[in-house]
Amino acid sequence: MEHIHYISSRGKSAPVKASEAILRGIAPDGGLYLPERLPTLTTEDLFALLPLSYPERAAKILSLYLTDYTEEELLADCKAAYSERFVPAPTGIHALREGVSVLELWHGPTCAFKDMALQIMPRLLSRALEKTGEALDALILVATSGDTGKAALEGFRDVPRTSIRVFYPVDGVSRTQKQQMATQEGENVAVTAIYGNFDDAQSGVKQIFADSAMKEALAAQGKFLSSANSINWGRLAPQIVYYVSAYCDLVNTGTIQMGNTLDITVPTGNFGNILAAWLAKGMGVPLGKLVCASNSNNVLTDFLSTGTYDRNRPFHTTVSPSMDILISSNLERLLYFAAGAERCAVYMKALSTEGKYTVDADVFEIIRRDFDGDYCSEEACLDRIASTFANYNYLLDPHTAVAVTAAERYLCGNESDHMLVVSTASPYKFTPAVAKALGIPATDDEQECMNAVAAATGTTPLEPLTAVFTKEIRFTKVIDKADMAKDVLS
Ligand SMILES: *Cc1c(COP(=O)(O)O)cnc(C)c1O
């Protein structure tokens, strides 16, 4: 098979193999890595995937993209990644009502969809060190406001030739999140709280990355700095898998027939998850409209209705915090495919200097063929949690509620064979908002709140979320933000 090379969305970097794209994360010209062409899946290929398990499907699909990894390597990694850490299976499909299903992507160790990528990406990175002949080991630095840090810690835990250090603002994360990180297991993990807010943590990490003395000091320890953020191709590729796999599952259960068009609604922040759906469609999976669902930070809704992306607007703190984003970095990859590298670079330049850009009419037309956008207010989100529980006895987290709202509105005006709504977090990950929606009196104590929601709904919190309150605390260090570099070297 011909290798697939990875090119930069801004067109000014040399093509590289998959392992190098994963190792580097971002291209030298500041662009995002993309496969030079999309591999295809025929109807026959899809039929062949039907009887396979999730790890087997994942290995097949990843092998089409990561052509310098062998299928044996990928199968071993996928089996290790999508193992007993996912309960009861890597994904689940819940039939919500006639014509609408929910794809649950939160069966992993941190009960949110980032586990789907972060359980496998570290293994791909570890192999990339070998494949590229990199002599140093990777030290992953993360600044987190909560969820990404925990998912990254779980993903890198005990992965060979990697270690991870997470910084979080001591008063800027919830009690559950703090507890989740403080009790993290693994030999190669470290967690440090800092006095300061999330921006302090993030700029501290950025300074460490930019510091050449740091680089030398770490090299002397046999390490180099790397990140695990969502623009890395190693995080995007595994997300394509669950769209292909969900299509197969829906065929297997007779919910759709092979060849039927499946519409998809995705609760969107950085545009990574929905872009993965678009790539699956580009490979030949019969997907229809991709509905991009936003909360009140509706910069993408406006972009998809006008062609103008404008981040100059107020930032809202919502009950779906993982979608509180005004710069959706993965949109750049779509712009590359729709507009080409040259125009993509112009748009991105305008975004960084003016905070906005307008795509050309031909680009807008291409994007509109596949995408629709909508947003959901805070009130509508909480109403949706309540009405979905009342009508269908199914509990939604606020991110998924945003998506269900957008999906139902889309279905009011459009024909659809079937709609798949992507669910990105367990409702127990955001219990205070769920309690509020259901009118359950909530206390400030998250553990009590979980119990109250469980009692009122007859549902059960997931084990990884309840276990954090009884696990041994390993990390208690709190440092001044000025001491972050020293902490990394210690
Ligand atoms: C990260 C996240 C999202 C947004 O996903 P993107 O790939 O950034 O669009 C949505 N919901 C939850 C719960 C998340 O953690």
What are the main properties of this structure?
binds pyridoxal-5'-phosphate; 47% helix; 490 residues; 22 helices; alpha/beta; globular
In short:
With 490 residues, the chain is an alpha/beta fold. It has helices at residues 18-24, 43-49, 54-65, 71-81, 114-118, 121-131, 147-156, 175-182, 198-210, 212-220, 233-252, 272-283, 299-306, 331-339, 341-354, 361-370, 378-392, 398-413, 431-438, 446-457, 463-467, 484-489; strands spanning 6-8, 33-35, 92-97, 100-104, 137-143, 162-169, 189-195, 223-226, 262-267, 287-294, 308-310, 356-358, 371-375, 418-423, 478-480.
Plain-language structure description:
By secondary structure, the protein is an alpha/beta fold. The chain has helices at residues 18-24, 43-49, 54-65, 71-81, 114-118, 121-131, 147-156, 175-182, 198-210, 212-220, 233-252, 272-283, 299-306, 331-339, 341-354, 361-370, 378-392, 398-413, 431-438, 446-457, 463-467, 484-489, and strands at residues 6-8, 33-35, 92-97, 100-104, 137-143, 162-169, 189-195, 223-226, 262-267, 287-294, 308-310, 356-358, 371-375, 418-423, 478-480. The strands form four sheets. A six-stranded mixed β-sheet has the order 3-4-14-9-10-13, with helices on both faces. It has a five-stranded parallel β-sheet with strand order 8-5-6-7-15. Helix 17 (378-392) crosses helix 19. The longest helix is centred in the middle third of the chain and has 20 residues, at 233-252. The chain is globular and about 60 Å long. The model has no long low-confidence stretch (mean pLDDT 95). The structure holds pyridoxal-5'-phosphate.
